[in-house]
Amino acid sequence: MYTTLISAAELAEHIEDPRWVVIDCRHDLVNLDAGREGYAIGHIKGAQFVNLETELSGEKRGVDGAFRGRHPLPARAEFVEVLRRLGVNDDTQVVAYDAHGGMYAARLWWMLRWIGHPAVAVLDGGMAAWQSAGLPMDAAVPSRAPGSIEAKPSLVETVDMAAVLANLESGEFTVVDARAPDRFRGENETIDPVGGHIPGAVNRFFKDNLQPDGKFKDPAQLRAELTAVVADPSKAVMQCGSGVTACHNLLALEVAGLPGAALYPGSWSEWSADPSRPVAR
Where does the source fall among the domains of life (predicted)? Predict the structure, then answer.
């Protein structure tokens, strides 16, 4: 079972295995059709496509009308139905990939763990690693029988906005922001209407988890770097702009052997939507 990362060579050995499901998670936060268009042009042989906006996210406003962030989690039952449409069963090994250093694939990795499915890994190096190895690509959309996966107790933790707000006083946990340093400082904010960060948060840019070739740094290096940011993962909460790249930091922590951190799904986009909440710059 692969539970964090898988290499292109390892995936290639199982590309015809019916018990494996490969999922293309490519996306663009500006051009929302870019991922599907890229998939239609060419993808890893046998891979299926999921859309971050419609299949890995839920309604942006709650029943009370409050904004929940740009990519709030869907209901667990809704996500299970997405997985069943993709042919995922309880014993399926899932592999997620993208062309962006794992920033979107990590969201799917985390969400499968969220519904209690441990057999999920991110393709290390993504599509670039697959193509550079000369491995088979395809433009066909595969047909799979529906799966029967069931939700199980979650393998991960989440916190909500109220908990993060209370933490401003209690200091119970460390909040780690995965956005680029300039956005963390409140500069060059082009996605959310307000720039800055949650008071008390520290910055760990998700791209710092990667080597120049787009693959993850080795576990020892990640452990050394991440322990400088997170003294105790069980008392840490990962966030970003909308709960996506925070999952990349959560994956890096798992690779480093530092499990236990939680996700704040609403992240900065939820936090900053209410002007009564404090902002640091």
Answer: Bacteria
Report the chain's mean pLDDT, rounded to a whole number. 96
Q: Which fold has domain 5-138?
A: Oxidized Rhodanese; domain 1 (3.40.250)
CA distances from 22 to 8, 46, 86, 98 (A): 12, 7, 9, 11
157-271 in CATH: which number?
Answer: 3.40.250.10
Look at residue 48 in the predicted model and tell me its pLDDT.
97
Q: Hey, where are the domains in the chain?
A: 5-138, 157-271
Catalytic residues: 240
Amino acid at 99: A
Helix-helix angle 105-114:76-85, to 10 degrees: 120
The Cα angle at residue 89 between residues 85 and 91, in degrees rounded to 5 = 155
Per-residue buried b or exposed e for 143-156, using 16+ beta carbons within 10 Å of the residue's own CB:
eeeebebeeeeebb
